[in-house]
Design goal:
The chain has a six-stranded mixed sheet with strand order 12-18-17-16-13-15, with helices on one face. About 30% of the residues lie in helices and about 20% in strands. The protein is α/β, with parallel strands linked by helices and about 775 residues long. Strand 8 and strand 9 form a beta hairpin. The structure holds beta-D-glucopyranose. The site of beta-D-glucopyranose (BGC) has 7 residues, from loops.
Length: about 775
Amino acid sequence: MERENIKELISQMTLEEKASLCSGLDFWHTKGVERLGIPSEMVCDGPHGLRKQDDAADHLGINDSIKAVCFPAGCATASSFNRDLVRKLGETLGEECQAEHVSTILGPAMNIKRSPLCGRNFEYYSEDPYVSTEIAGALVHGVQSKHVGTSPKHFMANNQEYHRMTSSSEMDERTMREIYLASFERMVKNEKPWTIMNSYNKLNGTYLCENKEILTDILRKEWGFDGYVMTDWGAMDDRVEALKAGCNLEMPSCGGVTDAEIVAAVQEGTLDEAVLDQCCEEFLNIIFQYEENRDKDAVFQFERDHGLARQIEEECIVLLKNEGAVLPLSPDKNVAFIGKYAKAPRYQGGGSSHINSYKVESALDAVEFAKNVRKDRIVFAQGYDDKEDRIDEELCAEAVEKAQNADVAVIFAGLPDNFESEGYDRKHMRMPDCQNHLIEAVAAVQPNTIVVLHNGAPVEMPWIDQVKGVLEAYLGGQAVGGAVVNVLYGNANPSGRLAETFPLRLQDTPCYLTFGGEHDKSVYAEGIFVGYRYYTSKDMRVLFPFGHGLSYTTFAYKNLSVDKKVFNENESLNISVDVTNTGTRFGKEVIQLYVAPKGGTVIRPLRELRAFDKIGLNPGETKTVTFVLDKRAFAYWNTEIHNWRVESGAYEIQIGENAQDIVLSNTVTVNSVTDIPKVYTRNSTMGEILEDPKGKEIFQKTMAQILGDNAQLIAAQEDNSGAINEEMMTAMAEGMPLRQMLSFIPGVSRNVLEELINKLNEK
Ligand code: BGC
């Protein structure tokens, strides 16, 4: 419906009707206005499948929803680094929504993984805002191409589960812009999500639902969002304030209470009715977009989508370690599949994203039909139980015996459900003791031990040196077993890369000392140094770096070239690099481009990921991969101009196998063309002034004049301080405020100082 017609419709609505649109009808529906033909629409959870509930509604994953297909969770899909694949996932979800008459899927969940401890990290994408925003963008694009809405969430700074409904995430402006807003920014600008879900928490003391700066000034005005904002379930605080701030829809139902508050506020004159009209217009525009593009013929294709879930997971699995090329397995090897998760995989997390999978494919199921696998060569031992963390000697002994008699042992391990979930954070990064014990016991008798991990976030691996191979399957969806078997036996060549760092220990993580916060304040003291930005800047050892992932083939990089060596910030830089598959099988490689400033006056991470691409290569094949970088790739957020700023200087363009291992680099010089007008005061330092060419000239002239008049006096002073040489003098003067000249430089009076400051500030 045209905007004009929507406006016309709103003009026919009563105040009460308009206010009623501002909250949900029930748990999963928006309200309609029957007499005006405004439909009530269903929204439903996901985002890695459909969680469509009927009567027994809840938002914590307690009651069942309709049977659906569970795709890999966000932790996994981000590791694919494959935008096309994620877009395909989005398209499929969009079709499923059309088939189920769902107008909007509540996702993607895309908060930054500030700490590995956040209970919902399994749903989120990355510690890096660029990966997060790109993968989310691909999903949003796919879903919306089917005329179904998305609701990227939780906007914003919802990086812990502890007190998520009351805690305030406290951060400085630069951190907010470069990390936490950046995770949403490109996705919003490029993909225009139909809706956004604001988070429960506060940001610097203001609940997100009431945060005008975030919901209106930044989201709508700066980024061009034109959909509607809905609250997370029960995240409403003050309804009228929230409406003024730009929050359109309160979910779920308010039982009429806050609708009445809106009506009263308009009647009392504390809320301008135009604000309410605007809110309804934004909301109805989306409602009609869906309604007018219904695909009534869509059908939920369970088997097809199950196959896609397996195919996606195959690209998400990350081969972390492969010593002596223990993988892929050859079919004639006798293999012991050990661990409960070989039979009953952990493939999704707990809470609102919990899908009622119509079937689950375990690794043991998959050996029945997978290619290049001989099921008569495979034995199984349960090894542990994941209901409680207790070492079961009998189960362990059986596993050890089977492992000993086989050529290879594959242990299916990871985190049990109660170790990570929506609603609470992890307390540590350890796997259950019983699983660590089992891995060590098996590895002690079987030199060819491989661990397959089913978990939503990094774990410590005390046994890493004792095993030959590690596959990170993450929470891989209902077809995880088939995907794992295909990777184990080489039917699929692993190509996932870590979208997060695996630190050696929790104590190494950037926010170890402050995560969770105190007194409902969580201070983001590590600032922009999140994830690899921290570890690489400190040159720290980690278990596996961001971007890491092995393949069954090898790749070589050559000819990193740039189309210009010196350019100004408004020009774009074209980069190309040749990648060759130097191994013997087809494989996919993720090309990671980092930018590293070489100097400058601003505190910055050693390097930041600014582009990536994923390509497939046959053995011996070479492809040229190209990237275009714009100003933003070199910029940081400047808090004087409240905008992105590039410092003039040298930057290295780096191609990395991961955030730690750079294989090629090339230096370019970028020149800023944006002047930050300087205002000098008596507290400006000599250093600041001398750095500015105009300031330097004026300062030197004034000094020459004063020194000329007082040369003898000054020479005498210098004689007395024989311990200080010229270099030391310069270094000390650098930080000296102008006002100190009054005390130390004879001939500088208040008048002289004022005159100097005036001259410096002259335009
Ligand atoms: C979660 C959201 C979810 C909503 C509806 C909330 O508790 O934080 O991610 O979409 O419930 O189930």
